[in-house]
Each structure stands twice: as C-alpha cells, then as structure tokens.
Amino acid sequence: MAINYIALIQSMLSPGIMISACGLLLLGMNNKYSLIVNRIRTLTAEMRTLESGHTSGDRMDCIHRQLPLLNKRMKLVENAVWLYTVGIALFILAIFSIGINQMSEGGLAIQFSFLFFVLGLLVVLIGIFFAAREVRLGYRIVQLEINYAVECSRKER
C-alpha cells in the first residue's frame, strides 16, 4: 500500500481553505459583537445620566427602542458565530476522513469526507443568512438614531 503523500496533502487543502475562510468570517463577527456590546454599554450609561438629570424623555424613548433591537442583533451575531464554528469543525472532520481514506484505501471514509464538507458548506451558508439579517437590523437601529437627530435639529430651529 503506497501512499501518495502529495495527493493526500492536495486533497486535504480544500477543507483547509474553507477553515481559513470561516476564520475570517468569525473575526468579522467577533468585531461586530464587540461593537454591539460597546454600543449597549454606551446607551445604558447615557440612560443612567439622563435618569439622574431628569431631562427630556425623547432621548430616553430612543434608547429604549434601540436596546431590544441591539439585543436581537447580538443574538443574530451569536448564531452566526456558532454556525461558522460548527462549519469549521465539519471541515476539520472532512480533513480527518480524507486522511483516513488515503491511509486505509477504504471507500466509506471518502463518503464521510464529502458529507462533512457539504454539511460544512450548508452550515456556513445558514450562518451567512444570520449575518445578513444582522446587517439589516443594524440599519434599522441607525435609522432610529438618525430620526432622533433630525427631530432634535427641528426643535432647535
């Protein structure tokens, strides 16, 4: 049983490339997660300041409308992160099963390789849908902030 190690390495590269791609997606989602958490902290700090100063309720209303949406946005990011992580695990399993197939020259392992790879792609695709929903929700949250700023500028005139 002669093993062609170059062919083995080449066949293991495709899932490896997908792992790198998912790593980049995870990095972007983790950055979004941090930004959302920081925005929530900023808004709650502003809310505490407004409560102690007994100021206009318009800003408080805007904050109260944003916080649940930010929480929902955070959940969407969390779902995308979990799905990308599961995708990476499936691609790793694909790599292992490709290696096992090459070492044992069995046909069953290659079927598992294909299954793991396709499932990994499917899971990452679902994660992308969550990421797209998160972007859409982020736009809605920014619209709330813009509407508040426009209302404030009208009142100042």
Number of strands: 0
Q: Determine the number of helices (DSSP H or I, runs of at least 4 residues).
A: 3
Through-space gap between termini: 85 Å
How do the helices and strands follow one another from N- to C-terminus? HHH
Main sheet characteristics: none
Structural class of the helix and strand makeup? mainly alpha
Helical content stands at over 70%
Mean pLDDT: 86
Q: Assess the beta-strand content as a share of residues.
A: under 5%
| Morphology | rod-shaped
Low-pLDDT windows of residues = none
Provide the gyration radius in Å. 24 Å
The number of distinct structural domains comes to 1
Description:
The protein is 93% helix and 0% strand. It contains three helices and no strands. The longest helix is centred in the first third of the chain and has 49 residues. The N and C termini lie far apart (85 Å). The mean pLDDT is 86.
What is this structure, in a nutshell?
This protein has 157 residues and is mainly α. The chain is 93% helix and 0% strand.
Notable traits:
157 residues, rod-shaped, single chain, mainly alpha
List the helices and strands and how they pair.
Layout: H1 5-53, H2 57-104, H3 108-156
